[in-house]
Write a structure and sequence with these properties.
Blueprint: H1 4-28, H2 32-41, E1 43-46, E2 51-66, E3 80-94, E4 98-107, E5 118-128, E6 137-142, H3 183-189, E7 217-225, E8 228-235, E9 257-264, E10 270-280, E11 300-312, E12 315-328, E13 332-346, E14 351-362, E15 364-366, E16 372-374, E17 379-389, E18 394-405, E19 412-423
Antiparallel strand pairs: 1-2, 2-3, 2-19, 3-4, 4-5, 5-6, 6-7, 7-8, 8-9, 9-10, 10-11, 11-12, 12-13, 13-14, 14-17, 15-16, 17-18, 18-19
């Protein structure tokens, strides 16, 4: 007789399979001849085509099955979620030098949750391109970070998986609304203390290394010079800051975050990059909890990153590694290393499969008694799954993830997910 966990997992597999079958039937009925005229109707031009605007979008239907405590950024007391998401994109070219884009969503929150449907403006920016060869671009607004290479393919159509890599969604023991005053406090918040609890980490307070695509507000410069790419930005929040801190009203201009990436592409197959970032990870509301004599600027997230992308025939490979330090005055430096290696193999023009290895390791903090305490639960995760593109507008993805972490609460977790995307 199978054990209860085995029965639960088998039931979850059947539920996900049923959802995948339902999505498959829906996708098979998608009419490309219907979507093409819609795309044409949503484009407009004027002034001899020097002014152009296009409205496009995507409808995502996602299903998740997982064990408690819910992994990563999923916020739910149950073991399953169904998430509809409508995304609308506006792209406008205003003459030869100015470009405007915006992205809005209607969903149950930026990260998976069972909240009510809500509308949100995620991205908007104005880009100035004085030269057509791409040597220099100036951009102002609210947009994804220039750090790393995952943000270039983080939307549902381009991402080979349904979830983000581990560095972009694994919560640590560092909070953004309160400054830690001891190593024991950080261990408690990370749920690696002597008395583990399902109450931690608190997902509305705990921070990852990078929170998703990090749609913070500010300005950037970027360009291409021969075999080199460069990009630098000044934003109102650290890379670890949550979505609620990305808006201009949550400005941290007295302690801005500065990030940059230098890329090198020796040929069409390779693209290598080095990133760096530094900024305060605390919100202004945390000022009352600071150690005496210190300011918000002393509580910094300092990150160094390396990324690589390789393409050869039917293979695509990506990798990123981040060495991150959260400075905690009078406590110590909370250091962590997070990385992933991802590979995608196109088996046919419409069918591909992908696999990703993720891992995050944590150092220790001095306990004030001559010893040290760990400040995070080391974790590794394997993601795998196939995807099929029925048409140029419709795609179905499946994903299975197995996760193990050095924690007494939820050391092992399984996640099954399915996602149907229809873009127009």
């Amino acid at each position: 007789m199978r054990s209860r966990p085995q029965r639960c997992f088998a039931r979850a597999a059947r539920q996900i399979s049923a959802l995948a079958l339902a999505l498959l039937v829906t996708a098979a009925r998608a009419d490309e001849d219907f979507i093409d005229p819609v795309e044409d109707a949503l484009a407009a031009s004027a002034a001899h085509d020097s002014l152009r605007a296009k409205l496009s979008g995507a409808l995502d239907l996602e299903g998740y099955q997982f064990a408690q405590p819910a992994p990563a950024l999923i916020e739910s007391n149950g073991t399953s979620l169904f998430l509809p998401r409508l995304t609308l994109y506006l792209d406008a070219q205003l003459g030869p030098y100015l470009y405007v884009f915006a992205e809005s969503r209607v969903d149950r929150g930026f990260d998976p949750s069972n909240a009510h449907l809500q509308g949100r403006l995620d991205e908007y920016a104005l880009r100035l391109t004085p030269w057509q060869d791409g040597r220099f671009n100036l951009q102002l607004g609210k947009f994804a970070t220039v750090v790393g290479n995952w943000t270039l393919r983080h939307d549902s159509w381009e991402n080979p998986f349904i979830t983000a890599p581990l560095p972009y969604e694994n919560l640590t023991g560092v909070w953004d609304i309160e400054a830690a005053r001891s190593a024991g406090t950080v261990a408690l918040w990370a749920n690696v203390g002597p008395r583990p609890s399902t109450a931690f980490p608190i997902k509305s307070r705990s921070l990852p290394v990078v929170w998703g695509p990090s749609y913070t507000t500010g300005g950037s410069v970027a360009g291409t010079l021969g075999h080199f790419d460069y990009a630098a930005e000044v934003k109102n929040g650290a890379l670890s800051s949550p979505p609620s801190a990305w808006n201009p009203t949550q400005a941290q201009w007295q302690n801005p975050t500065t990030s940059a990436r230098l890329g090198y592409h020796p040929d069409e197959s390779w693209n290598l990059g080095f990133s760096a970032s530094s900024g305060s990870y605390l919100r202004a509301s945390a000022e009352g909890s600071l150690m005496p004599g210190y300011t918000l600027g002393d509580y910094r997230e300092i990150l160094f990153g390396q990324d690589a992308a390789f393409a050869w025939h039917h293979w695509q490979v990506w990798a990123e590694a981040y060495e991150t330090r959260f400075q905690i005055p009078r406590v110590g430096n909370a250091d962590t290393v997070a990385y992933y290696l991802e590979a995608k193999l196109k088996l046919t023009p419409q069918f591909y499969t992908a696999v990703r290895w993720n891992q995050q390791l944590f150092a220790t903090l001095p306990d004030g008694l001559g010893g040290s305490d760990r400040w995070g639960a080391s974790i590794w995760r394997v993601d795998a799954g196939p995807a099929y593109r029925f048409t140029a507008h419709t795609q179905l993805k499946l994903q299975y993830s197995f996760q193990r972490q050095d924690s007494a609460i939820g050391p092992v977790n399984h996640l099954l997910a399915a996602q149907l995307t229809v873009r127009f």
